[in-house]
Design brief:
The protein is of the alpha/beta class. The chain contains five helices and five strands. Helix content is 37%, strand content 18%. Bound molecules: 1,3,4-trihydroxy-5-OXO-cyclohexanecarboxylic acid. 1,3,4-trihydroxy-5-OXO-cyclohexanecarboxylic acid binds next to loops.
Length: 144
């Protein structure tokens, strides 16, 4: 079994970026948390971060036939990208949407999620623990 964790733009700046919203934990700490989960659960997890919409679309397409599930925080592309929505639908893999902050409690433009429409579940406003919650959800959903 293999899961893919995708992080969109500026999430590589975790810990530095608006710590009042996203916390003080760094992106490399997040990678360590995910690596620990991977080892504890004996499930391979690949992490991918990009600031580029097309690179995220490419990565989702490449996951087809290779990965068993996707946990995705599309960051700002959540609210704009039909291309990421279509890629998730095209690959057809079980996917969980993650947002560190509660997008529904923030500006109006963050209330719309395109990518979320292709996800079977959503973890919103749980901080970095949301990634672990999403991986647990994928594990429960994907039986192999
Ligand atoms: C985010 C919320 C988005 O609105 C924002 O653009 C991000 C991060 C979150 O994890 O809370 O970059 O996806």
């Amino acid at each position: 079994m293999k899961f893919l964790v995708i992080n969109g733009p500026n999430l590589n700046m975790l810990g530095i970026r608006e710590p009042n919203i996203y916390g003080k934990t760094s992106y490399s700490d997040l990678l360590k948390m995910i690596d620990d989960w991977s080892k504890e659960n004996d499930i391979e997890v690949e992490c991918f971060q990009s600031n580029h919409e097309g690179a995220i679309v490419d990565k989702i397409q490449e996951a087809y036939g290779v990965c068993d599930g996707i946990a995705i925080n599309p960051a700002a592309y959540t609210h704009t990208s039909v291309a990421i929505l279509d890629a998730l639908k095209a690959a057809g893999l079980p996917a969980v949407e993650i947002h560190i902050s509660d997008i529904n409690e923030r500006e109006q433009f963050r209330h719309v999620s395109y990518a979320g429409k292709a996800c079977f579940d959503h973890v919103i406003g749980k901080g970095l623990d949301g990634y672990i919650i999403a991986l647990d959800m994928l594990k429960k959903t994907v039986h192999k």
